[in-house]
Structure to design on (468 residues):
């Protein structure tokens, strides 16, 4: 029997067991304890390769800069590099980690709205592929720092083109009301102002990032077209030809491959979580459309040598990570008068390690890890271990942004192991030791089958670190 949540060669059910790259998840929990995050190098590599393949069949020259804010664990960064990926960083700290993980400066791009002088200096001294300037005032600061360092800065400009997507409001980033980017006119003016080919600022490209978990490919096609139109205006006004376009990240992950809980969610939320399109063919198709337009307008030479930079985070790492959690306690009680009593399962994985479950009501499908092949047909209410009423796996406000109940095998209870799937993105990158909970261990299963500790579990003494 095959389950909808399975991913061939990576996430499978065999007998009672949930296997991750062929390894029994219950063996991993026994060896490393829970809560535990498990990552697959093989799956990371497949996800990178899938996007690189957008350059096949007449697609653009693709540069895949993994957005390290989604998960900057060093083992993950090394796996990305090994798979042929480059990297996007958002801070001096992420730049430090990228260099530490072994990325070459030519593989690194640096985003962010509020870079300070030190971060800019570090990026210029390293000589990275591009600093993505978010405002004109930032270009001015980059110019000052580059002059002081005596080394030019490669710069690309982030635009805010007013392109709406159907994702959550807090995840929209290409609207004028968002805090990101500069207006298309400001970018054209900047190309006029900083056109000296031997000056401290070397403007190389333009950038649009639409947001995260964008459910439809159409905004990407519109963003490519907006980049082309902008490139044409820049060429006409200043004579400059761009070296790269950057289309950002935000490609969606289908969190509802198993549809068993989708009718328990409100329609908009179910649509968002089940978003699913082939990102490489979406980019290839969008690129072909823009090429045709450029040819018809006689500007195809503006595109012939352009490199298309992408910044995928979630779509590279989300489905490559699983969170294993143990049910610590159970209880039974009615949710109200005349209702059948709810069976509660209290796990050891709270929102301090899966913050999106609280902030964005993010859905992670759950499989009983040592009873994976049994029918998951009995409803339970789930909650994490924190002394905080918001630490529950349902929508406490009743908006059906998460299902009220999770379907698991009949009779599951204390000490049983659960696997939360698609947990690799925006999880350990956002964890914090709320309630004095030591941060969890992380394991990487290598492409060669070797299991290695990628992060050791914190001890109590780590709770004192930096306290004076
Ligand atoms: C967060 C972010 C990304 C990655 O978004 P995903 O949804 O994880 O793919 C890419 N680019 C920029 C500028 C970002 O802020």
């Amino acid at each position: 029997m095959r389950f909808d949540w399975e991913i061939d060669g990576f996430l499978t059910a065999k007998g009672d067991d949930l296997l991750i790259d062929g390894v029994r998840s219950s063996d991993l929990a026994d060896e490393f304890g829970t809560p535990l995050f498990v990552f697959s190098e093989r799956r990371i590599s497949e996800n990178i390769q899938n996007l690189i393949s957008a350059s096949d069949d007449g697609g653009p020259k693709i540069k895949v800069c993994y957005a390290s804010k989604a998960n900057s664990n060093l083992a993950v960064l090394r796996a990305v590099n090994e798979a042929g990926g480059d990297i996007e960083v958002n801070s001096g700290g992420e730049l430090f980690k990228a260099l530490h993980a072994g990325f070459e400066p030519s593989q690194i791009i640096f985003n962010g709205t509020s870079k300070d002088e030190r971060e800019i200096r570090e990026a210029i001294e390293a000589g990275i592929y591009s600093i993505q300037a978010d405002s004109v005032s930032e270009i001015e600061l980059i110019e000052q720092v580059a002059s002081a360092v005596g080394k030019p800065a490669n710069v690309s400009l982030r635009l805010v083109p007013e392109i709406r997507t159907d994702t959550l409001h807090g995840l929209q980033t290409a609207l004028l009301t968002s805090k990101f980017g500069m207006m298309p006119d400001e970018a054209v003016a900047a190309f006029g102002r900083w056109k000296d080919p031997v000056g401290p600022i070397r403007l190389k490209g333009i950038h649009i990032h639409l947001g995260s978990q964008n459910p439809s490919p159409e905004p990407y096609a519109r963003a490519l077209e907006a980049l082309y139109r902008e490139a044409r205006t820049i060429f006409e006004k200043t004579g400059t030809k761009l070296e790269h376009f950057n289309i950002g990240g935000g490609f969606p992950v289908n969190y509802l491959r198993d549809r068993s809980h989708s009718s328990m969610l409100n329609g908009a939320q179910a649509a968002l979580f089940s978003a699913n399109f082939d990102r490489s063919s979406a980019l290839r198709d969008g690129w072909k459309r823009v090429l045709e337009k450029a040819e018809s307008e006689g500007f195809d030479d503006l595109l012939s040598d352009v490199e298309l930079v992408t910044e995928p985070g979630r779509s590279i790492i989300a489905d490559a990570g699983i969170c294993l959690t143990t049910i610590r306690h159970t209880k039974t009680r009615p949710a109200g008068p005349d209702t059948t009593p709810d069976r509660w399962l209290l796990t050891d994985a709270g929102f301090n390690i899966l913050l999106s479950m609280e902030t964005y009501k993010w859905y992670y499908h759950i499989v009983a890890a040592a009873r994976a092949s049994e029918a998951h047909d009995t409803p339970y209410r789930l909650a994490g271990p924190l002394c905080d009423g918001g630490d529950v796996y349902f929508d406490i406000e009743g908006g059906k942004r998460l299902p009220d109940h999770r379907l698991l095998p009949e009779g599951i209870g204390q000490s049983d192991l659960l696997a939360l799937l698609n947990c690799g993105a925006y999880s350990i990158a956002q964890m914090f030791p709320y309630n004095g909970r030591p941060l969890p261990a992380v394991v990487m299963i290598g492409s060669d089958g070797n299991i290695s500790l990628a992060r050791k579990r914190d001890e109590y003494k780590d709770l004192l670190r930096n306290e004076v």
Remarks:
- The chain has twelve helices and 20 strands.
- The two ends are 57 Å apart (CA to CA).
